[in-house]
């Protein structure tokens, strides 16, 4: 639950946004709440939920692959929940709705064809879906590197971080031309503030609170362009920039390294993330099985997963090679692995690294 101070601040921001255009803004919000999904995405959900005993993880992954589906499922779960508990991620929504409820929510979503977009949104849904999905993938990797808590919240905030842009797109006919006046995400944000008096991050934060998302997700979306963004907001900001770079857009190297530093991710690892991202899309695995390994044991195991030898891991962790060896032998014993390859495979399969 948010504190009275936080709730008051959020209410003030809601009024600021709702004052920008009155009923026209409400209509723009309503349009985004009916945002279409890729036709194949909806068919994938239908295939999964029609199987006997569908996996919640598989359903969640399919929903998270399409922002239109995610919006529909979150809104349905928020309406079904009806209580003070806020949704912390798509897994919460799937648990509330059950597979049958997810199927009903997905069935009500309008769809578009990948190669023949039509309707009032024209080609915007597919470009939005691709960027949202790229940012979500990047956020999952960043959450892992920065050992951030609440990875599901960070991933969902990244998936929805630009929903405010959809609102502004419906609200202002010249919005696309406005964005063309800048070449980086920071310049686009300044154009919004200068010409419209509001920015997409603030609008997005207001909108997701209407859907019953947790206060921390709303704050991460709302603050991901803030100069002092930290925690989940910094992770979303960095994920946004990594995704933009993968699309060929210009980004600020200084801002990238600054955000990485705030998340405890060294400059070398941040550069590696930006470099590898267009080629690597590792699927995050969820597991309800608790991890028996300590933080240091996980660090050593991640080093093995990256192909490093004991001395390289020791140098990076500022430990002796013998200490690293002890940590890894503890890892093998705790998870029942016979060698490093099996240890890495088991840990990845269980979602620990």
Write the layout of secondary structure elements.
Layout: H1 4-18, H2 23-32, E1 37-38, H3 39-49, H4 56-63, H5 67-81, H6 90-107, E2 111-112, H7 124-145, H8 151-159, H9 163-171, H10 175-179, H11 185-196, H12 200-210, H13 215-223, H14 231-246, H15 253-262, H16 267-276, H17 295-305, H18 310-317, H19 321-335, H20 340-349
Parallel strand pairs: 1-2
Helix pairs in contact: 2-9, 3-4, 3-6, 4-6, 5-6, 7-8, 7-14, 8-13, 8-14, 9-12, 12-13, 13-14, 14-15, 17-18, 17-19, 17-20, 18-19, 19-20
Helix content: 55-70%
Give the name of the CATH architecture of the largest domain: Orthogonal Bundle
Distance between the termini: 30 Å
What does the radius of gyration come to? 21 Å
Structural class: mainly alpha
Total domain modules? 3
Largest sheet composition:
2 strands, parallel
- The number of E-state strands comes to 2
Note the beta-strand portion. Answer: under 5%
Summed up, the helix count is: 20
Name the shape in a single word: globular
CATH superfamily of the largest domain: Hypothetical protein af1432
| Level-1 CATH class name of the largest domain | Mainly Alpha
Strand line-up across the major sheet: 1-2
Strand and helix order: HHEHHHHEHHHHHHHHHHHHHH
Q: Low-confidence stretches at least 5 residues in length (pLDDT < 50)?
A: 1-8
């Amino acid at each position: 639950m948010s504190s009275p101070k936080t709730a008051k601040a959020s209410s003030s921001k809601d009024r600021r946004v709702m004052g920008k255009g009155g009923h026209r803004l409400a209509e723009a919000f309503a349009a985004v709440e009916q945002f279409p999904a890729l036709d194949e995405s909806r068919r994938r959900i239908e295939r999964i939920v029609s199987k006997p005993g569908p996996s919640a993880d598989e359903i969640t992954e399919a929903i998270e692959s399409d922002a239109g589906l995610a919006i529909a499922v979150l809104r349905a779960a928020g309406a079904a929940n009806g209580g003070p508990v806020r949704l912390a991620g798509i897994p919460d929504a799937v648990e509330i709705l059950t597979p049958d409820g997810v199927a009903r929510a997905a069935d009500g979503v309008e769809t578009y064809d990948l190669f023949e977009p039509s309707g009032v949104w024209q080609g915007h849904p597919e470009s939005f879906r691709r960027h949202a999905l790229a940012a979500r993938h990047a956020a999952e990797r960043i959450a892992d590197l920065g050992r951030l808590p609440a990875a599901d919240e960070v991933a969902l905030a990244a998936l929805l971080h630009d929903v405010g842009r959809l609102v502004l797109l419906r609200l202002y006919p010249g919005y696309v031309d406005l964005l063309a006046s800048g070449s980086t995400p920071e310049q686009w944000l300044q154009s919004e503030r200068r010409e419209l008096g509001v920015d997409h991050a603030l609008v997005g934060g207001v909108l997701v609170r209407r859907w019953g998302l947790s206060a921390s997700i709303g704050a991460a979306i709302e603050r991901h362009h803030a100069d002092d963004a930290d925690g989940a907001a910094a992770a979303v900001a960095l994920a946004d920039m990594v995704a933009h770079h993968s699309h060929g857009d210009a980004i600020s190297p200084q801002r990238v390294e600054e955000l990485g530093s705030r998340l405890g991710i060294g400059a070398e690892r941040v550069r590696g993330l930006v470099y590898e991202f267009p080629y690597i899309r590792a699927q995050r695995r969820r597991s309800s099985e608790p991890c028996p390994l300590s933080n240091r044991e996980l660090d050593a195991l991640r080093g093995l997963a990256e192909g490093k030898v004991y001395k390289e891991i020791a140098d990076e962790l500022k430990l002796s090679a013998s200490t690293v060896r002890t940590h890894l032998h503890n890892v093998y014993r705790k998870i029942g692995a016979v060698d490093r390859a099996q240890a890495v495979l088991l840990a990845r399969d269980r979602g620990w690294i």
